[in-house]
Amino acid sequence: GIIIEGLSKQYGYGDTAFLALKNVNMHVAPGEVVGLIGPSGSGKSTLLKCLGAVIDPTAGRMTLGDEVIFDGAWHVKDLRALRRDKIGFVFQAPYLIPFLDVLDNVALLPMLAGVDNTTARKQALELLTALDVQHRASAMPSQLSGGEQQRVAIARGLVNRPPVILADEPTAPLDSVRALAVIRMLNDMAKRFETAVIVVTHDEKIIPTFKRIYHIRDGETHEEVGEGRALG
Ligand code: ADP
Ligand code: ADP
């Protein structure tokens, strides 16, 4: 899981200093999916970028699994390896690589992590099968429907079995049925791989599915119990 304690982020210095995150506290257990909801400019991207080790928090502590990864400074030797192996990203636009087939789009991450090609492709096929798109393994991304592309993107986010998945508006362009299917898959995958999942969203179709929600406004978070509507 992930634990965030007293996290703050200041952009700029002196007269132009701006506190985009103020004492953010958040925890997500292994296997849990939480929503992160807030208006534009509230600090959602900043929080995701801190969690994803894309920018440096100013203060606070972040724990991933049983490892303190940030405590006023990074406690990780290799931030690139952290981003690649410990954190899975799922975006609104799937950003698949157009000149690689579906299997290699997913296998690329383990390959980059040093896994041999045969094993990487085996791992990729396993994830594609779990998400029920294995029959599209040799298709090119441009040949896939939007829903299939999103499944492949989720497979890619999960293939290195990261303890944390950050999903940024993963359902925005999808209709209600497909949006709920994506959330069901994220929930299934979270349980199956003991992954902690944070879904940034303002999609009214999926908000009732969360059991816990963090609201963010002006860089401050408030936790709330969600409806936790059954996903069927
Ligand atoms: P959201 O993702 O919720 O729209 P952001 O995290 O992008 O919010 O932004 C939060 C606040 O921080 C906004 O007021 C934004 O203008 C400001 N901000 C974001 N990035 C920077 C930056 N690199 N430099 C200065 N201010 C920034
Ligand atoms: P989003 O809400 O999707 O994050 P934004 O327009 O807020 O989109 O931000 C787009 C990019 O510009 C982000 O990388 C953000 O960090 C950066 N940014 C946002 N506000 C500022 C700002 N005031 N100064 C510098 N960079 C900013």
Walk me through the structure.
The chain has 6 helices and 10 strands, in the order βββαββαβαααβαβββ. The chain is of the alpha/beta class and 232 residues long. The strands form 2 sheets. Strands 6-7-8-3-9-10 form a 6-stranded mixed β-sheet. The model has no long low-confidence stretch (mean pLDDT 92). The site of one adenosine-5'-diphosphate has 2 residues, from loops. GO terms for molecular function: ATP binding; ATP hydrolysis activity; transmembrane transporter activity. Residues 2-232 form the ABC transporter domain.
Strand order of the largest sheet: 6-7-8-3-9-10
The global form is globular
**Structure classification:** alpha/beta
Pick out the low-confidence regions.
none
**Straight-line N-to-C gap:** 25 Å
* Rg: 18 Å
Give the names of the bound compounds: adenosine-5'-diphosphate
Q: Strand content of the residues, in percent?
A: 25-35%
Overall mean pLDDT score? 92
Number of helices, counting only DSSP H or I runs of 4 residues or more: 6
Largest sheet: 6 strands, mixed
The topology string of helices and strands comes to EEEHEEHEHHHEHEEE
Query: How many strand segments?
Result: 10
Q: Give the assembly state of these chains.
A: single chain
Pfam families: ABC_tran
Keywords: ATP-binding, Nucleotide-binding, Transport
Domain ABC transporter: 2-232
GO cellular component, one term: plasma membrane
